[in-house]
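Think of the structure tokens as a kind of shorthand, similar to the way a musician reads notation: each symbol stands for something richer, in this case the local conformation of the backbone. In the example below we present two proteins back to back. Begin with the first one, reading the sequence and then the tokens, and try to describe in your own words what changes along the chain.
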Amino acid sequence: MAIEPETKNWTWVIEATCPECGFDGRSVSVRDIPAVIEENTAAWPAVLERDDVRVRPDDHTWSPLEYAAHVRDVHRKMTERLALMLEHDEPTFANWDQDATAVEDDYAGQDPAVVGRELVDAGQRAARAFAAVADADLGRTGLRSDGSVFTVATLATYYAHDPVHHLWDVRRAR
């Protein structure tokens, strides 16, 4: 079954509390983000060992495996965007259609053990990359293809919400 594409603009989580997962972007410092990512990353291997890892709970929700593959790719994408921001002045990020990627890369058909290893590796790399950012670089900017402007600090907060929210998604679906 096809999943309805995500059309929400989640940038509001930088300055608010997500009413679903409870992530509060106002209370998270950019220096907290590596620990948030590391803690979240550590929880995913157990999710990928679940008997229902390939089961979608309903017609509009990804399976735990699909969410995990997405989170892996979010770690990769945000590490890439951070590098662009640190290497270039005001880069514009290419559009990333997460729903098209899920279909094209067959998230549902991937091996959960491989996804788990790749997610942990990508999450650890992302946490290290954000931890290594110098204070002087936190204000560097980048632009999403829809025109949203991020600083390194706001990108970190925006990014951290995604894996936190998706771990909440797979835990509530049980």
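Once you have a description of the first chain, move to the second and do the same.
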Amino acid sequence: MTHEHVLAVCRSNWEYRGLDDASVREMLAELAAHLEDAEAAGRTPRDVVGRDVTAFAASWARARMPLHRRALRMAAMVPFVAGGLLLVSHLLHGTTVVDIDAGRLAFWAAIGVVTVVLELRRGSLGFARGWIVALVVGLPVLVLTQRLVGEETLFLVPLWGSALLTLPGIGYLVAERRRAPGVTAAS
């Protein structure tokens, strides 16, 4: 594990979590100084950040980004992702209405709850761990729910409803983009 690797993983994690550029630069400079001091003392980067660089970055980001901001981000991004998935479903099925049954609802709710809890606690799950959550949590919930309740349609989501779900996330992303220092309208 090199200094560059540690700094790259931390930068990626902090940017994913929505920390502003100034905070990321400041944190990277501080971490780089700690790593250089450790190297001068004969210690490795692992001695500074531990075995799991992502967990280190996540804990530092949590200290920098208070719970209410993380919760607000999740509250905006969860419906955004749900709306995006529904829009893809509209597109794939070529319909203006998507039917939601109990199994599908339970599948996405289980994955959503586990993902939100893990991301608020640990940080980004990443692509591979996201699939593991889907297989280990979502799939059994889907099968169990379909066996217990059946596949009867609970409600229909129109195309405009799916688009409406994306609005909180779009609003949050626009607000974050405007808050970031050094971002101009031309960029």
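Compare your description with these statements about the second chain. The radius of gyration is 20 Å.
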